Amino acid sequence: MRELRPVLIVAGLLAALALFGPALAPNAPNAIDIPNRLAAPGGQYPLGTDAMGRCILSRLLHGASWSLGLAFLVSTIGLVTGTLIGLSAAMGGRRIDWVVMRVTDIFLAFPDLVAAVVIAGVLGAGTGSLIFALSATGWMRYARVTRGIGLGLAKRGHVVQARLAGLSPAAIARWHYLPALAPSLTVVWTGMLARAILGISALGFLGFGVQPPTPEWGTMLLDARVHMRSTPLQMIWPGGAVVLCVLAINLTGDILRDALTERTEPA
Amino acid sequence: MRQILDLLLRALLVLAGAALLTFTLLWHAPGDPATTIAVARYDSVVSQEIIAQIRAEAGLDAGYWTAFRHWVTPLLAGDLGNSAVSGRPIWPEMRTAMALTAPLALSGLLIGLGLSIPLAMLAVRHPGGWVDRGAVAVASLGAAMPAYWLALLLILLFAVKLLWLPAMGTGSARHLILPALTLGLGTAAALTRILRSALLEARGAPFLPALARRGVQRRERALSHIAPHAAIPVLTVAGLELAFLLEGTVMVEVIFARPGLGGFLIHAIQARDFPKVQAVVLLIALVFVVVNLLTDLLYQLVDPRIGESDA
Amino acid sequence: MLTVETLTVTRGGRTVLRDVNLTLAPGRTLAVLGQSGAGKSTLVASVLGLLRPDHGQVRWNGAPLPRGAAALVMQEPRAAFNPRLTLRRSVQEPLRARRLPDDPVRLARLCRGLELPPESLDRLPGQVSIGQAQRAGVLRALIAAPPLILFDEPLSALDAMTQKHTARMISELQREEGFAALVVTHDLGYAAAHADAIAVLRAGQIEETAETATFFAAPQSAYGRSLVEAAVSLGALGRQTAA
């Protein structure tokens, strides 16, 4: 599992940012200071203020727990449901496999961000709809990868032995499938975590996600857009935060994938 | 032949499922659709009678399956139905929107291909060299960049600071440049990565040194042996790229205030005009499924050995 | 008592097993002889209930084979073990699956019988020799004392010396434990030395069944005769029977 280390480090750093970011904020994220609206960086407000005089740095740090925390939540919900669905296809026999994979195809018939926008928009803007929308559109890749590897595992000697011994399907999945699936699922998870961060901020930017005045990066960008002419920097911060996080996750995902292909290639 | 038939049947099944899924979501949406329509139409407090009238008229008082049949039957004949808000047929409005979306998506794709193909080919000439590393770095950055932020940055630079191009609207061809650039840069980032690794993999294919020894020219090797080999992974990802393009178009249209399909969809959602939402979603799914079907078919043409094992 | 009645299995339009009938009493060893492609693996899978036959049935004392009543020793010793679990964990899986308590005394006795150093059980499958892995496979098959054990080419991955030794240890343990053994193999020497009865499988059909001595003295089917003749001319029988 040494290959997983870069992923764990970056994921840990982002999780720490989500957990402890708010504690580092110099000001209250929603404290309005009209006399100091659209202030330049410096003094009490290290990154300046927005149109209502709220501290941008504080909103950015509090936003981390929303943008990143929700991304962790959504990608983990997808991981759990997708893996369970994939396992049921791989372990449940040909008919269940067929049905499950066709259902997966149907969910894959929509570009996921478009689907998420529609679901979140139709269910009514808010954090709950956002979580539901991104989870409902984010499980299919896990299911496909799990099913693909799982079908190969079903023929392995140790899985046959476990079935013969009468081990329960849950125990077989726990001891014989999940350890073999973990590296590939982690690769998928990094990709989906990045997608979730992008999706959350996109929905926020469209007004379908986390609602103002909650400081979420996409919503902050939506606020900042109006004042692009006067204070363009205000728009740089939340977008830059999204890019940095996504970039870090994608790079570790690439490293992990390369390590895995190198390991499996000679075989 | 059997496999092609199989693919077609599967695509039809997926489309039917997609229609049912879309309908189910909207059927279970919170709020009373009839009231929503009434408020949207008359823009004030409306009487229960009018609401009941609307409910009957829109077939909303029927059960789930009846309502589904009422929607699907005309749909099969190509009738997308009428807007719940204006009562006018959806198709003409949607066609106007599509006429704005198509050039955007197409030019985005062309910019994407135009940038990524030369970049990927330059990069793989010296794998690990500084051109290669630079290409990978730029592509990684591009893949991490949300379309809406890139759009805002481009607006900031070209429209606000340099005043070269209009930021919003649709008036002229100049209005198309920034949206198309946003879409094209994002597409190029994703495509460069895929093309690069596909070309690298194809170049490493074991038969190439043999061809070189047989005296096959470098250009000849590149065109007739490496290219088809690289085509397979590129084809697979082309379908995924289409998703990116469709998503990107929706976002880009909203930011640049272009009344294309994306804007059409967002407005329909905001107005809770569900027949319109259904129509757009289904159209997008149709495009998506058809393109995926085409890539699957091409895939089989390029490499007939790849069967249905990967479902 | 294992009975296989009119077992027929088709796969992809091809009949892999046709009307197979076999019986096997506790404590006895039945060797099913056949070349690769004769349907041996399908027979094993059907007896174990891993695939559903198109026709016929597999019974144990007149009833369907209970869960966990049959164990399998596989041809590839290492592949039969989860590469991420210690041999000990895998060996105890049959006990765990049926919530039976660990029995250290029995485990130690079986280890002695199989000449498996107890500390080798704490290694991963990739860290022991093929021979040790195969004996651990036999250990796993025996641990929960199932009344029936199937051996699918149990010795073919081992070298000649280890083969003979392992075969003897299995026979010894069978005398102590009294399980019924169904061995599918193409190795006539092994069958001659350790089986009580022989069944000849060819193209999915049983050509003949006989007690071992009877079979080797006078094979009834033409195919059985050709098998015995080929083995005699190679000298494969003499060496093994003598051993």
From TrEMBL, chain A:
Recorded GO CC terms: plasma membrane
Domain ABC transmembrane type-1: 64-257
Keywords tagged on the record: Cell membrane, Membrane, Peptide transport, Protein transport, Signal, Transmembrane, Transmembrane helix, Transport
Pfam name, any one: BPD_transp_1
Regions that span the bilayer: 68-92, 113-134, 187-210, 231-251
Localization in the cell: Cell membrane
GO biological process, one term: peptide transport
CDD domains, sorted: TM_PBP2
Record membrane topology: Multi-pass membrane protein
SUPFAM superfamilies referenced in this protein's UniProt entry, alphabetically: MetI-like
Chief location bin: membrane
Annotated signal peptide: 1-25
Family per similarity comment: Belongs to the binding-protein-dependent transport system permease family.
Protein name: Peptide/nickel transport system permease protein/nickel transport system permease protein
Organism: Pseudooceanicola antarcticus
UniProtKB/TrEMBL annotation, chain B:
Family matches, as PANTHER family: DIPEPTIDE TRANSPORT SYSTEM PERMEASE PROTEIN DPPB-RELATED (PTHR43163)
Organism: Pseudooceanicola antarcticus
Membrane-spanning intervals of the chain: 7-27, 104-124, 136-164, 176-195, 281-302
GO molecular function terms attached to this record: dipeptide transmembrane transporter activity
Protein name: ABC transporter permease
Name of one Pfam family that matches: BPD_transp_1
Membrane topology term: Multi-pass membrane protein
Domain named ABC transmembrane type-1: residues: 98-295
Keyword annotations of the record: Cell membrane, Membrane, Transmembrane, Transmembrane helix, Transport
UniProtKB/TrEMBL annotation, chain C:
Stored SMART domains: AAA
Residue ranges of domain ABC transporter in the record: 2-228
One Gene Ontology term of the molecular function aspect: ATP binding
UniProt xrefs under Pfam families: ABC_tran
Keyword terms of this UniProt record: ATP-binding, Nucleotide-binding, Transport
GO biological process, one term: transmembrane transport
Superkingdom as given in the UniProt entry: Bacteria
Entry-linked SUPFAM superfamilies: P-loop containing nucleoside triphosphate hydrolases
Recorded family membership: Belongs to the ABC transporter superfamily.
Record's protein name: ABC transporter ATP-binding protein
Organism: Pseudooceanicola antarcticus
